[in-house]
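Incident log, structure service

09:12 report received: a user says their structure output differs between two submissions of the same chain.
09:20 pulled the input from the user's history:
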Amino acid sequence: MTEPVITEIGPRKAAGFLFDTTMDSYNPRRCAAFWVNCKFNVQISQEQYNEFATGALAEIGLWRKKEGGGLEYFHGSIVDDYSRVCEGATRVEIPGGLFAVFTTPGLDMTAEGSTEFLFQIMDLWEEIYDEWLEENGEYELDETRYAYEFYGQASNDNKNIKMDIILPVRKRN
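09:34 re-ran on a clean worker, output below:
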């Protein structure tokens, strides 16, 4: 497993689509790259999304707890502010702090295909939860903040596609 980069990341704003689920708890294998199979509650059109998402730093996918229990899934774009975000889009405030940033290995999707990229994402989530969080000794998951998938510039290069998993951490006591 590639060691993460431990870094401070400032707060971020995101806007996009929300998906209600029947899941009660996070399962790395089932929840990774969830955007592939989900059918979003269409709060806004793709055209409305494109108006505020064009030129964004990245797209993200994250899970959050619903009021009353269970989980919901958000997929959207990092935005500077909400001034261009249309009515009906879900807005998410992502608190800043200390994060472990894990990056998938580069993959040539023109040769390997998108399925292999999805498997890389799923495998990395599992490694984080099954190995790194247990074995690193220095950091633990900070469950008061969001962990999320970050699809930045490196996810646009189909000959060397990569993405980041950004995990909120704190020093162990």
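09:41 both user submissions now match this output. Likely a transient worker issue. Closing.
09:42 reviewer note: The radius of gyration is 16 Å. Residues 44 and 88 are 6 Å apart (CA to CA).
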